[in-house]
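Appendix B. Chain record.
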Amino acid sequence: MVAKISLGNSLYGALVYNGEKINKEKGRLLDTNKIFNDGTGTVNIHRAFEDFKRWMPANSKAEKTMMHISLNPHPDDRLSDVDFARLAHEYMEKMGFGDMPYLVFKHEDIDRHHIHIVALRVRPDGTCISDRNNFYKSKDICRELEKKYGLKPAERQKITPDMPIKKIDPNGDIKRQVANTVKMVGMRWKFQSMGEYNAILGLYNVRCEQTDGRVNGREYHGLVYFATDDNGNTIATPFKASRLGKFASRTAIDNRFERAKNKIDIKPTKRMVAEAMASASGKDDFIAGLKEKNIDLVLRYTEDGRIYGATFIDHNTMTVLNGSRIGKEFSANALQRWFDNPEQKPVQNTPDVSAPLQDTDARNDGHASSDTAQSASQQHKQSGRNNEYDDIPSLPGLDLFHVGPGFDAEEEAFYRAMQRRKRKKRRGPKL
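Structure tokens predicted for this chain:
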């Protein structure tokens, strides 16, 4: 049996979380201690909150006044509601919370039924029950209860280098699956932008979005993770990064972006992508050729069907690269022109690629809205011009004026146009 203990100051939030499970018929209230229980298996959240307040002291130095515990038996264990309730009471007694008010909920939202306990940890006199050595104490108690109730030993699943990453199973523990996916992707893959990060997460039906805002005058920058189906539709309540672990935080992911810059070698991926392009007759043939080389191509489209982002996922080198990072001929615009006119295959250049390249797609690949991408598309349609210098032959002595493989004039124009629009919106209209 695995126990997870969380301390917090939002008692009402913990009650609402468990109450919603009951309302969705995915759980029930098994028992209470010093809190009203009408025996129906449901809970009146407001009434329970008021009961807890009666036991809370007027003054206390404790910042985290409540605790939320989940007890998770082995998936093969099957306990009755009576056994679950008895197990919860014995656990709380041995942890030193036998005299504290608490509620015991059973969750049935996944195949592995488990229980949640919401408890107060501050006594009426204002003193707080210590959480020192809670982890080791709880672990010993779990081993003791496993023997008493004939349960199978269950430990937290350890992430190993050879553990396969699987797609999210809607019938399983979604939160744990998302957490494991995010952790393993971060450990194994190299990426340098949110678009590249989402490209690899998307293979396993996970999506990440940035959240920026201001609360009480203070700015915050975070990440939110979503579990999706094969069509990208959200299938569960999103999870803040803080609920998954530090490895999923904005700071941790930004640090991975920085570290990847010095670790990524684009040459092996570029060589294989170039070989697949050289032998391909069009879009489908190109994608099939990449698959044979163990490379996935993720294309992002605007609402009108135009490609605004292309990302190559190289399973050989465990690297995720936006097209323009590899080379101009592999960028979203170049691929769009080729797919529209299969006979006009991009001209491949082979400059020195030993140094990491800046990615023009990365500036707007992670969260470029369809409106933004569409407006950029319209600007290009209005201009009516392609890059007039794409096909100029190489001339001796003029190498200094050739752009590198990470530069795309059209995409740069997209980016500058969108930046001007953003600045204009921030300044507001002229009076």
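Further analysis of this model is presented in Appendix C.
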